[in-house]
Amino acid sequence: MELTIKRHCVAVLDNSLSPLQQQLLQEPKRVRIVDAPTGAGKTYAFIKALLAGSRILFIVPTRRLAQNIAASVINDLIKAGWGRTLAEQKLAVWSSDQTAILREQGVEHIRGLRVRQIQQLNPRLQGMSEIIVAVPEVVSQLLLRGHPERPQTGLDKGQAGFSVLDVLEYFDHIVFDEFHTIEARGFGLAALFAKLASVTTELNTVGYGRAKISLLSATPLNIKPTLQALGVPDTEIAQLKEVLTEGAHDRALHGDVRLVLHEQSTMPALVVEYLSVIQNAVSQQQQVVLIYNALADLRRDLPLLLSHFQTMGIPANQVLVINSIDDSTQQSHQLYHSGRRQNPDDFSILIATASVEMGVTFRAANLMLMESGFAPLNFLQRYGRAARRGADGLVVVRLDNASLERQPWLRALQTWVSTYENQTVAILELSQVLSQEAQQSFQSEMDNPASLYFGSLPQQAIYTSGLYWQLLLRHPSSSKHRKDHLLQHQPASSKWVYSKLRQLEPLLQDSLYAKPAKQWQTLLFMQAMQLRDIGKSVLVIEADGRELKIDRVWLERETDIMRRFTPRYDEHEQEYFQLQGELDDYLLDDKNRTMRRLNVYFPHTKHCIELARDHRLISEWRKVLTNQRDDDTEAAWEDYPEAMQAAEQLVVFTGLIPSSDTELSTSTTSLVW
Q: What's the pLDDT tens digit per position in 190-224?
């Protein structure tokens, strides 16, 4: 079954900007929530700001997107008449990829370099263009830099004054791109900037510094209630939305796109049905994009997919594979290309996972074969990658009984397509169908009926933001007057977290419980510093020497490598597994997969317990914490009931469980005391 999503555009003003792009540059309110479809040019608006002399901190969720945006910035600046040398001088990228490059160049003190990059932006000098593209973890670590026991020594000498207030002063715009990807645990960073940029200061002015905070997404979450609960004034929140048009002279975002729902058991089987269509697209210098839900499925299917493409005369060197594992290496596989440094525009076939949802654009991807994703926002983000800039296109969605049974929204989409089969509909109608489930949750609170939300942040975001605020307050790098500002403007949830930490204090003072309680509190703060649920990774070396950095949980669940091989350690004590073949040789089938498990900790005992990492994790942790049949637990509740209850409430309200599954560098873990 199929229908056509008709061509849609945005209006163009005399200065070549769309109305939304103009608003992004001129809106006076300090906090802006921005809803615009894929391809609308949200990023380009800030390039125009850069050309006009603004300084921009552009925060993105992935390293690949940071690389993509950096390349776009350079190209647009050159098109505007800047020389390449000047354009590159005005841009810095903060990500682990760039860190690796700097280390290759002999730069040892990366953090110090980044702080100096900001401090060189003299806040008193206006009209000095600069843009820094960063992943959120790097920005957070700069705010929490240094060793707590020697904050004025070593790498941090001369940098003690740097803080969130300086960031707000140095930049004109702080942008969180693709903000729908922000997890509840990581909202504290955005909330910190939004709150301090919008409060009434001691001088009776609005906000510290001059930066405006913009949160951009094509599939927005309803985050305004969360911001308000954290104390961001309603008067300083602007909700901006791009209005779509169908004008012949307006700027086209997408052409007419055929949306086909096709029931098929596997992606290779779907490819076989569209072989001639794929071959025709490639012959016309267009790109073909395949998007999988599961990385393991992609890896299992890859040999067969490559075989199908070869039968069409498409060589392996025209195939780019995009996913977290292949992106982790600079060594391409002998049968295909991979790695974040590869330019997607150079390839005819792109085979990817959800990695491509994060704002990645392609040269001419007018044919897409995709799986639906696990939520409506995934679907729309994927769909929006195809047929950009007014071109017509075809998007084929593979459906099967399992996905339809699991996902009610997908059944609703199937019903809608069936109702309008072979008709032409507007993109807004597709968005309404996909967001319908979320809208039902917001009917009583929506103050902007024109917006279509694809979800909301849970209440836990309010309390994780409070925990993050407490982390800043307690950190030695916060000097007295800055700590006073943070205390004055802390949200109510920060005060609540402080009260619970105070109630935990008797456990920390008791000789019997001090050590486990200290460890538990440290791990809780480490969870607050880890802005996303990213587990530890491990190095895997294939037989040909190709090195892959893989999430440990994925490796344990999807392969038998950790059961078949004994880990080795290099000269830097880094753990790795040396394979006798390729990673894909060790993939498990569905029935043999293992469930993700987690070692969790408690404030009253040194013993950790392994629990299943699923939706029951918090309730199972609480059962152990309150298990009166355990002598140690019963004694702790009897001696310190208020402290034990405070620990329980901190976990329940934040959703963060102190555990060993935390991927933080040595320099970062030293920040927690």
A: 999 999 999 998 888 899 999 999 999 988 889 99
**DSSP string across 606-662:** EEEEEEE-STTHHHHHHHHHT-TTSHHHHHHHHH-HHHHHHHHHHHHHH----BS--
User: 148 — phi, psi (to 5°)?
Assistant: -60, -25
| Euclidean distance between CA atoms 194 and 211, whole angstroms | 10
Give pLDDT, residue 474. Answer: 86
pLDDT given at position 444: 42
Torsion angle defined by CA atoms of residues 88, 92, 96 and 102, in that order, rounded to the nearest 10 degrees: 60
Residue type present at position 343: N
d(CA 68, CA 360): 7
Distance separating alpha carbons of residues 367 and 314, to the nearest angstrom? 16
Q: How far is CA 28 from the centre of its chain?
A: 27
94's tokens: 């903060």
DSSP-derived letter for residue 193 is H
Q: Identify the CA nearest to 219 among candidates 177, 164, 252, 251.
A: 177
Rounded Cα–Cα distance for residues 428 and 67 (Å):
31
> How far apart (Å, rounded) are the C-alpha atoms in residues 599 and 387?
45
Total residues found in the chain within this entry: 673
Tokens of 651: 């976990």
- pTM of the shown model: 0.89
Residue 266 burial (10 A CB sphere; 0-12, 13-18, 19+)? middle
CA 201 to each of CA 59, 162, 208: distance values in angstroms, whole numbers, following the listed order: 25, 19, 7
DSSP 319-362: EEEESTTGGG-SS--TTSEE-TTS-GGG-SEEEE-GGGGTT---
Q: Which two tokens stand for residue 370?
A: 């995709």
Q: How many helices (H) and strands (E) does the chain have?
A: 27, 25
Beta bridge partners of 393: 257
pLDDT per residue as tens digits for the range 114-167 = 777 776 655 555 556 889 999 999 999 888 865 433 333 333 343 445 689 889
Contact 355, 372 (CB under 8 A): no
For β-strands 2-5 and 257-263, DSSP reports them as antiparallel
**SS3 of 34, please?**
strand
Nearest to 76 by CA among 42, 38, 44, 40: 44
Amino acid at 144: L
* CA dist., res. 109 & res. 656, Å (int): 31
DSSP state, residue 293: S
Pairing of strands 547-551, 537-541: antiparallel
